[in-house]
Amino acid sequence: MGIDMNTSVNIAGVTLKNPVMTASGTFGSGAEYSQFVDLNRLGAVVTKGVANIPWPGNPTPRIAETYGGMMNAIGLQNPGIDVFAKRDIPFLKEYDTKIVVNVCGKSEKDYVEVVERLGEEPVDLLEINVSCPNVKEGGIAFGQDPKALNQITKAVKKVAKQPVIMKLSPNVTDITEMAKAAVDGGSDALSLINTLTGMKIDVHKRKFALANKTGGLSGPAIKPVAVRMVYQVANAVNVPIIGMGGIANWEDAMEFILAGATAVSVGTANFYNPTATIEIVDGIEAYMKQYGIKDINELVGAVNIC
């Protein structure tokens, strides 16, 4: 990298050395990928979702391949905040990368408990997964109702010591309405998109491919939807956006940045190409050199409108 080239970006006051992050749920908390990836080279590691108590997740089968992607219905299986704080945070602190903790819950109280606990921990940013079903409201996701989203954002912000990133669900009629509800509630940044709800049926067994019937679709198949939503949200609110959804290479990452994302998260690609994140870091640098770009921030939202 040339000495006069800046790849660092700022998310709500936190500086990342480059815009490349991992997507929650696709990278564990970094340990299992550390033999393939130099975590020091990543802008940030985003952990798997963490709840106030251990969650067993959904029954199996929980993963199915689809054209251009995969579906999962893991059900946010996780060991809970106590194990996470004792085991995973110390591991990540050994590396020169920012730590973003993804938080999940089934009620406002659940989220608040985890966020309060994390206030005492040396982590940099909190990403709030509002695609969780709100058990008190009959199972509709927090992120599918603007009022519920606004309320959960306010509740989390009230107790948070770190900047808050609300992770938006694409399973809504108008993504900009949800973005505005989160920002109005005090969200410091936004992540989008989470998975699209899908279904797959095994025609020979005449059974659902996933025990849960439906699952979250991710991978290249959803990228055009994700790019469109990032562009819409970037033009509707004035907070940093972390773009994700089907990013497999540096060109994909640059699409999101040009659409208005300050940073990007790489998810499904990690499963079939464990070094995808590093290849994307290198690719973005090569792209900047090719076009004589001195500062990555010049490219955020720089798509030319025909």
Helix-strand blueprint:
Elements: E1 9-11, E2 14-16, E3 20-22, E4 44-46, E5 63-66, E6 69-72, H1 81-93, E7 98-103, H2 108-118, E8 125-129, H3 146-159, E9 164-167, H4 175-184, E10 189-192, E11 196-199, E12 201-202, E13 207-208, E14 214-218, H5 223-234, E15 241-244, H6 250-259, E16 263-266, H7 269-272, H8 276-290
Parallel strand pairs: 3-16, 4-7, 7-8, 8-9, 9-10, 10-15, 15-16
Antiparallel strand pairs: 1-2, 5-6, 6-14, 11-14, 12-13
What can you tell me about this protein's structure?
The protein is α/β, with parallel strands linked by helices and about 300 residues long. It has one domain (about 10-55, about 75-200, about 215-300): TIM Barrel. The protein is built from 8 helices and 16 strands. The strands form 4 sheets. The chain has an 8-stranded parallel sheet. Helix 4 (about 175-185) links the parallel strand 9 and strand 10. Helix 2 runs parallel beside helix 3, helix 3 (about 145-160) packs parallel to helix 4 and helix 6 (about 250-260) packs across helix 8. The longest helix is centred in the last third of the chain and has 15 residues, at about 275-290. It is globular. It starts with 8 loop residues before the first strand and ends in a 16-residue tail after the last helix.
